[in-house]
Amino acid sequence: MTNDQVLADRLPNIEEAVFQKHPKRFLNKKLIAKVIIFLPLLVGVGVLYFLVEDITWLWKAALAAWVFLFLIAVFLAYKEYFVRGYVLREQDITYKKGWLFHSQTTVPFNRIQHTEINHGPIDRLFKLCELDIFTAGGSASDLSISGLDPEDAAKLKDYISGKLSVHA
Amino acid sequence: MLDLTIPQRQSKKIILFYLFKSIKGLILYFLFAAIGTKSMGAYGWYMTAFIGFIAVISLLSPVLKYIYFTFHIEDDELIIQKGFLQKERKAIPLERIQSININQNVVQRILGIVSLEVDTAGSKAKELEIPGLERSFASQFKELLQERKEKIVEEMDATSGVVTENKKADFSDESTTSAKMSQVITEVVILQLSVIDILKVGITQNHLKSAGLAIGVAFGSWYKIKDIVEQYFGEWLGQFSFENVVSGTSIGLAVAAVISFMFFSVVISMLLAINKYWDFSMVKKGTDLEVKMGLFNKKEIKIPLSKVQILEFHSNPLRKLLNFQTAQLYQAQSTDNKLGSVSVPACKEVHRILLQHLIFKQPVEETEQELYCNPFSYARLAFYVISAVAIPLLGAAIYFEVYVALGPVVAISFFLVFAAFMYGKNSKIIKDDDFVVFKKGWIFPQIIISPVFKTQAVEKWRSIFLKRRREAHFKLHSAAGSRGLRFLEEVALNKLMNTINNEVICSEEKWM
Fold this sequence. Notes:
- Chain A is of the alpha+beta class.
- Chain A contains four helices and six strands.
- A three-stranded antiparallel sheet of chain A has the order 1-2-3. Chain A has a three-stranded antiparallel sheet with strand order 4-5-6, with helices on one face.
- In chain A, helix 1 runs antiparallel to helix 2 (about 55-85).
- Chain B is α+β, with helices and mostly antiparallel strands and about 500 residues long.
- Among the domains of chain B are: about 10-160, PH-domain like (Roll), CATH 2.30.29; about 195-275, no CATH class; about 375-425.
- A seven-stranded antiparallel sheet of chain B has the order 7-6-5-11-10-9-8. A seven-stranded antiparallel sheet of chain B has the order 14-13-12-18-17-16-15, sandwiched between helices.
- In chain B, a hairpin with a 5-residue loop joins strand 3 and strand 4.
- Chains A and B meet through strand 3 of A and strand 19, strand 20 and helix 15 of B.
């Protein structure tokens, strides 16, 4: 039997951990979602082209704006995929996301209240799901890890729930 | 003693209370009936019948509400059942109860009833309110809940067996005090405000805030009575068109307006303070803090000392002169920020130390790590934001040749950037053995004290532009919300986050 003393400052730093990437399908889903969001706007540009004949520059400007915004959205979605990732350690879970606005949150298991797996219709199409981790109090410290492989998510959930029962 | 094993109803006076609530809506309906039906001709009768039907229902519903609202204790759970058509049953395990508050608003005061609020802190909103109880019944009920809860918690602690050293100390401490409590309840008055104190608090409030409120109220009520006023005084008011007023005003009038505006905002903040803090007292009762305050809306709040998550001290230049600070106690919150917080005005240095000692038991000791914000980053951000507003303003001023406007715009912009710089300069995070302390702000300084083991998550975030400068923002999430500071050096921040996180992992104290 071993029962070594644990000193807080001897524990490993999060910077040394290797972050897990999401499956490639998640990127595809994000890109297709962007297209789906932007298509109706393109219809709007088409309406301008056919209906407003007096002001010819209007539809051109609208089209340019559409292309510009679409490219930016796609670029951001693409960039974001590569900085998104999670680390599961023995005692805590860390999630980082966002390229333009990057954030990294660490939640120790002994502060987690419960976990949930969600999958919406689009998620199911791509065989993805979302793992929500809830803490007590307000919702500010809740983690929601979207775009996980369902099998991985179930494993993660089991692992975390196992840890929770130790602390409960 | 109360017997709560069978479902109980509230005081019958609650019917009047419910009735009062629905009367507001009723009046609107009757107005509509009186005006609307005239113009509708033959269909008017149907309308009247319909409205009559609604009126009867809203007169009946208070009675139904009263009949179908019951509460009782069963198997260590507080159970509330309500609803006639849509039945609702809420059950709260007694050991989960965070705090029990007694509130009384004006209407309840007239009727002589109080409302009892039971608060649990879960991630999903879960509170109970029993709005109509006799005062004596409510306080007995409160005591009963408290006792039952403590008993259950003690039993659980005793049976669980895995009591850590810290808990043991707490436990023995608590059991001795509760043993004493059963004979004599130890009461220590911590703070009691006299009328003069309350007036002082009122004078030193943030007057800008109450001025804003005054403007809001004035405009709001103006829009309500605008039509009537214009109908009767239209011609007379017509003389006061914008051009007339501008050409007619002298500097004296403007000064008078400013002074009266200031006067009113001071008066309003005084009134607000008196209404809120009248008869303020804070008493330590056993392991709980009991706070009572309020003139029209009376409030009685009970907070277990161990449930206070964050302690904050706020100040402003006027309060600094009087050596006053406002303490803010935050409990775990279930829905919004207001609910779980109690503000204690007029804290002197003595009270400050006393509060800190009572709640956290340890003082803030020597610092282990200190993180300073980068004031230049604050100034830079303020500069970007302000120039986005100021440059178009300046352009407009030059275009319309109103050169007088240039001076104030430039001066205000410079002041705002300087204020942002000073904010950054006076902000830092101090980490000692047991606490994370945020010091924030220049004109309105704040000190935020949060015990490390009550942390739930640590977060760092930044925009892509900060990455290059190796800076990041920090957020500390606890059950009472998030606190944070911006523009910290990334390497030092990483170290801070790692130590906090690891200390939370190692800690086995109860944090909720």
